[in-house]
């Protein structure tokens, strides 16, 4: 069996409504027959744990809730450069944005410096206590799972 070349990571907190969309996409993908070059993992809400899941894949595709003030369930697909150019909005390392976490990883793990990232961001509708996704976000999660498989071919 060939080693995976694409790691798909779902970020988010499954106890906070639509913030759990990343892990939900990973769970849906895990139930499907995936190409051998694709590996999927749930990563929780801390991007700094990403190196512990990396096994030398050339690409890391991420799924997360992404607030852009569009209707719930809107799917945003960001390229590597778009992801890395999102500014850090916090003044502390205890609450890093996903792109800022990736920048820290590049500084700390130079062997991960050549990875190409892609982000599927799904616009959340509700970010409150609860384990269920809102209907438009649930529908978007299935669409993103389909797109990940299709784009990996």
- What is the helix/strand order? EHEEEHHEH
Principal-axis shape:
globular
Strand content: 15-25%
Helix content: 25-40%
* Uncertain regions spanning at least 5 consecutive residues: none
| The CATH fourth-level homologous superfamily | HybD-like
Q: State the end-to-end CA separation.
A: 17 Å
Biggest sheet, in brief? 5 strands, mixed
Widest sheet, order of strands = 2-1-3-5-4
What does this protein structure show overall?
By secondary structure, the chain is of the alpha/beta class. It has a single domain, classed as 3-Layer(aba) Sandwich (Rossmann fold), CATH 3.40.50. The chain is 29% helix and 20% strand. β1 (6-11), α1 and β2 form a beta-alpha-beta unit. α1 (21-30) packs across α4. The model has no long low-confidence stretch (mean pLDDT 91).
In short:
This protein is of the alpha/beta class. The chain has helices at 21-30, 80-84, 98-108, 135-152; strands at residues 6-11, 38-44, 59-65, 75-78, 116-122.
Reconstruct the topology from this structure.
Blueprint: E1 6-11, H1 21-30, E2 38-44, E3 59-65, E4 75-78, H2 80-84, H3 98-108, E5 116-122, H4 135-152
Helix pairs in contact: 1-4
